[in-house]
């Protein structure tokens, strides 16, 4: 899981450099390469926490579509999609990073605790085998617990 938080930034940085030229060659329109700039602009706007500025291209696109008509194959739609994809991939990477840094240390601590409990039970069984005539008292349990957890 920690590897995923390291791979996602690499993915969202490299993704437009592969995908956008492919789409530009399929559409036979090299103006689509401006999508790379829009993609990184979307990342930049989200990274500096200026999501309100992100509304300016959306308002422009709405005006453009109102004036000239909406088309999925339109240049403006592609640029807005690139900008939105950049913002989405960046935000996804940030959220996965937060999740892994928040969750995995807890899992590691829980695993360490479980291993120590298991070791404590093993030592308790060994003590019972070595001293079969002695009853286990809270003081003996505390001594074993302190040996396992604090050494």
- Average pLDDT figure: 85
- How would a crystallographer describe the biggest sheet? none
Task: Give the N-terminus to C-terminus distance in angstroms.
Answer: 30 Å
Quaternary organization? single chain
Question: Any low-confidence stretches, pLDDT <50, length ≥5?
Answer: none
| Count of extended strands | 0
Q: Helical region count?
A: 5
Structure report:
The protein is an all-alpha fold and 151 residues long. The mean pLDDT is 85.
What's a concise summary of this model?
By secondary structure, the chain is an all-alpha fold.
What does the secondary structure layout of this molecule look like, with pairings?
Blueprint: H1 2-27, H2 34-47, H3 55-68, H4 75-130, H5 138-149
Helix pairs in contact: 1-2, 1-4, 2-4, 4-5
Structural key phrases:
151 residues, mainly alpha, 81% helix
């Amino acid at each position: 899981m920690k590897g995923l938080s390291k791979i996602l930034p690499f993915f969202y940085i490299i993704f437009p450099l592969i995908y956008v030229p492919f789409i530009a060659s399929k559409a036979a329109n090299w103006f689509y390469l401006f999508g790379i700039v829009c993609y990184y602009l979307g990342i930049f706007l989200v990274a500096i926490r200026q999501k309100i500025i992100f509304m300016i291209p959306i308002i422009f696109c709405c005006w453009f579509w109102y004036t000239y008509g909406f088309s999925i194959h339109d240049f403006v739609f592609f640029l807005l999609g690139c900008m939105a994809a950049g913002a989405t991939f960046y935000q996804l990477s940030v959220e996965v990073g937060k999740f892994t840094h928040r969750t995995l240390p807890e899992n590691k601590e829980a695993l360490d605790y479980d291993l120590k409990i298991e070791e404590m039970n093993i030592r308790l069984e060994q003590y019972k085998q070595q001293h079969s005539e002695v009853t286990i008292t809270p003081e003996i349990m505390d001594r074993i617990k302190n040996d396992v957890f604090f050494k």
